[in-house]
Sequence to fold (231 residues):
Amino acid sequence: GRLQGFMLRRTKEEVLPELPPRIVMRVPLEISAKDRLTIDAAESAIGDREAFISSTRENFSQLGDMSTLLRITGEAKVNAAVDYIEDLLETQDKVVVFARHRGVIERLKTQLDGGVVVYQGGMSDIAKRSVVRDFVENPATRVFIGNIQAAGTGINGLQEVCQTAVFAELSWTPGEMSQAADRLHRMGQRGSSVNIHWLYAPHTLEAAILGVHDAKNTVIDRLMTGAGTNS
Fold:
């Protein structure tokens, strides 16, 4: 079992050795005092009573107080995230942005100046293909904003024109973010590296998400080390 997991973990590097390195950067955003107030208010409201977490449907992190808090945090980050993305566009032709909540996606689209396409759930297959084609073929379309679940799998082509991804919101599940990054880190990538920027708000629930990622990756690394020793 451990050896099989190790082999699966190694497959991409072994089969595709020509892929450039994937570099993940954790970027603490400087949230304005005004935007920070909305996070603080939500945290206070939840902290003053017993937190509500529902496990009756889907993943608990999609529901209840934690979901609300992450949505409010995502919205509070938009202004700082837009500044960060615009700085990247000074040196990058195109940037792929992943987010989770519709309100965050809509505000990112509105505040980024022109040349923005959006890929999210509820769109027809034709519309989705059109969005991908526009980003790949139109030099004026410089930002692709994708819902992390809808756009995180099954898309090919973005890697032909882009080597930079920004996560404006984080996911509890490391694999979900890794799969989304794979939209760029795949065959056809011409950049010398694929650069992944995780934007997070320090001292919020997002810091806990990063801790979850660290814990899960530590377990995976231990399994890899053990399997590698036995192989």
